[in-house]
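Title: Comparing notes on inverse folding

I've been comparing how different people in this forum approach sequence design from structure. To keep things fair, I'm posting one structure and asking everyone to reply with a full sequence. Here's the target:
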């Protein structure tokens, strides 16, 4: 690693507060260089972090952290903050087992005022803290929420602003980090509105008039004065943020310390609800990331000199790609199909679909609740919406799934990606609750394919099912089973006996079928690819219960309330008394790490499964 002389002496925000203006400039350069080299070695969220370097330095210089509270929305841009708050030397462990989390985490540092990772929570949390400070008489404490233009598309941000704008006697500063990007290009009317604030009528007019007014003033003062109440009132039309009750300031250049520092100093002592709009560039300072912020949003390891080089080695197709291919093929076969993503076009495999079917593609922004009810609305008119959504983000739309879709038995297909553990993103992104939270909902059917080929077929089954239907599949690839090219479905609620044995029945839900196969051989057990959590294959279960004494269930999701619980309930309800062992994830949050290692640590690799089953059947 390069030497970073000033950064290496900066161990605490108190050190940042002590730096001169000139040193702060040097610190931003070193911090940016360190982030690039460090993320290149570990992988992680690069572009967003490069874009918030100046803001991070300015915030820690101006505010009195950790007493003042900084809340990073999503938190994928908090690496600079981690580095300046005593975690520089642990950055090599970022997103790895036992290492630093890729997101702010209260248990990791006193400077991480609030744990984030799911978007659009920062204003609510900061407002809560600000209200608590008022209640506790902590008059001087500052509460700062930093939210991106992508995260601002989330409904919670508006709920919080709606509340904040009428809350008296609090210190709340919302900083909108507007880089005109979500993961993919931003969508929606809010994006258009922000663009309007930056362009033409609004800013140019204002700037020209202010220039005249402030002619001769030194540059720093020019910025500070620009925000004085009397000039603002005279020249700047009210923004929607002002209509919400905020004092709107900006837009200013978020890479220019001479703009950021005086503005933040000015805001620090103002009190009330303030809204600062800064303009930044995702990937700032690293040309490759500036040019392709999507590619550099969350890269794995790479050489910073070369940039990301596409591997030439043959790669297994991922589950996401299976979905991406299927949705295009099914759309070709059925003109009623429309596809929806809440801001995860690339991650959900919808790039090609958008290219082929732009009129049938909907990116609704980071708005999972809305995406579900929007799907419901489409279904009411006979369209067949496919909602592509990560398991962890579907949690956001729970009531919409129940109340707006299932209760009305609407024909919506859920393509649930990132089911199971996801690896480097850790507990915040784990897709391990979906089986438990969905299987209690009437009307819905839920499939758990064991490989890529089955994923495609079960997507067709779910799509053809007339009602809400979900297919959950993991990140990455599986056995490499080549999917068919047709869109033939498998029957709903029918499992597949993979191996016929006796006495012991191993019922696998999803891809853990494969590591369980060894145990089936060892114990001459029956091995079943259950395929469906709901409905369970009752006919097969009854046969097995009459001929087997021991049942083992296995799933890559939370055991409590999961697929194994469903089997246990079924056996009990039908009066069977077979012994049952449920294998799955425990009742605890599982932090980041290599996901194979994490499954092994929780007894879900081939070897551990074999030994647990051996003990159970002995
Ligand atoms: C509820 C939720 N949905 C989706 C995501 C996935 N996600 C992470 S970052 C991101 C884009 C955020 O854009 P923005 O807030 O503008 O930050 P930027 O990446 O531009 O720095 C998305 C969609 C998430 N973290 N949380
Ligand atoms: C911060 C965030 O929520 C996303 O960037 C997420 O990390 C993407 O995950 P995948 O890499 O699995 O698409
Ligand atoms: Mg953005």
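Reply #1:
Here's my take.
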């Amino acid at each position: 690693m390069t030497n970073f002389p000033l950064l290496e002496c900066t161990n605490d925000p108190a050190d940042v507060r002590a730096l001169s203006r000139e040193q702060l400039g040097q610190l931003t350069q070193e911090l940016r260089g360190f982030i690039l080299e460090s993320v290149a070695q570990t992988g992680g969220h690069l572009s967003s972090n490069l874009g918030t370097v100046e803001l991070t330095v300015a915030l820690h210089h101006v505010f009195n952290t950790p007493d003042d509270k900084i809340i990073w929305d999503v938190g994928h841009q908090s690496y600079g903050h981690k580095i300046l708050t005593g975690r520089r030397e642990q950055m090599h462990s970022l997103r790895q087992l036992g290492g630093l989390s890729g997101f702010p985490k209260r248990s990791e540092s006193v400077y991480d005022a609030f744990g984030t990772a799911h978007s659009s929570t920062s204003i609510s949390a900061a407002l809560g803290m600000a209200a608590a400070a008022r209640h506790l008489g902590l008059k001087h404490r500052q509460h700062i929420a930093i939210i991106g233009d992508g995260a601002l598309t989330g409904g919670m941000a508006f709920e919080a602003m709606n509340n904040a704008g009428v809350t008296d006697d609090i210190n709340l500063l919302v900083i909108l980090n507007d880089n005109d990007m979500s993961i993919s290009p931003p969508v929606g009317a809010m994006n258009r509105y922000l663009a309007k604030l930056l362009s033409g009528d609004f800013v140019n007019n204002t700037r020209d008039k202010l220039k005249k007014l402030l002619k001769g003033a030194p540059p720093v003062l020019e910025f500070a004065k620009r925000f004085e109440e009397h000039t603002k009132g005279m020249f700047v039309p009210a923004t929607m943020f002002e209509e919400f009750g905020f004092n709107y300031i900006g837009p200013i250049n978020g890479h220019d310390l001479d703009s950021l520092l005086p503005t933040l100093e000015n805001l620090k002592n103002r009190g009330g609800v303030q809204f600062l709009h800064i303009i930044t560039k995702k990937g700032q300072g690293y040309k490759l990331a500036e040019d392709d912020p999507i590619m550099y949003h969350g890269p794995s390891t790479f050489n910073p000199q070369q940039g990301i080089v596409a591997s030439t080695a043959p790669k297994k197709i991922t589950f996401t790609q299976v979905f991406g291919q299927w949705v295009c093929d099914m759309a070709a076969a059925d003109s009623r199909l429309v596809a929806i993503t809440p801001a995860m076009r690339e991650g959900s495999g919808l790039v090609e679909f958008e290219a082929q079917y732009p009129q049938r593609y909907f990116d609704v922004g980071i708005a999972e609740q809305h995406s579900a009810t929007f799907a419901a609305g489409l279904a009411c008119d006979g369209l067949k919406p496919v909602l592509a959504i990560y398991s962890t983000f579907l949690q956001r739309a729970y009531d919409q799934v129940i109340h707006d879709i299932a209760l009305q038995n609407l024909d919506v297909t859920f393509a649930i990606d990132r089911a199971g553990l996801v690896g480097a993103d850790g507990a915040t992104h784990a897709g391990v609750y979906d089986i438990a939270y969905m299987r209690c909902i009437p009307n819905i059917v839920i499939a758990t394919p064991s490989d890529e080929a089955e994923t495609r077929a079960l997507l067709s089954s779910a799509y053809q099912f007339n009602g809400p239907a979900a297919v959950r599949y993991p990140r990455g690839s599986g056995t490499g089973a080549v999917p068919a090219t047709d869109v033939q479905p498998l029957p709903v609620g029918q499992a597949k006996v993979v191996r016929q044995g006796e006495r012991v029945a191993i019922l696998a839900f999803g891809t853990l079928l494969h590591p369980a196969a060894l145990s089936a051989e060892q114990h001459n057990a029956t091995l079943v690819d259950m395929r469906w959590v709901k409905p369970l294959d009752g006919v097969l279960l009854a046969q097995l219960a009459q001929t087997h004494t021991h049942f083992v269930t296995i799933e890559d999701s939370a055991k409590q309330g999961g697929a194994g619980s469903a089997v246990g309930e079924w056996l009990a309800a039908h009066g069977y008394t077979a012994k049952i062992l449920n294998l799955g994830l425990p009742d605890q949050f599982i932090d980041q790490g290599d996901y194979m290692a994490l499954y092994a640590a929780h007894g879900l690799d081939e070897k551990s499964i074999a030994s647990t089953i051996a003990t159970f059947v002995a």
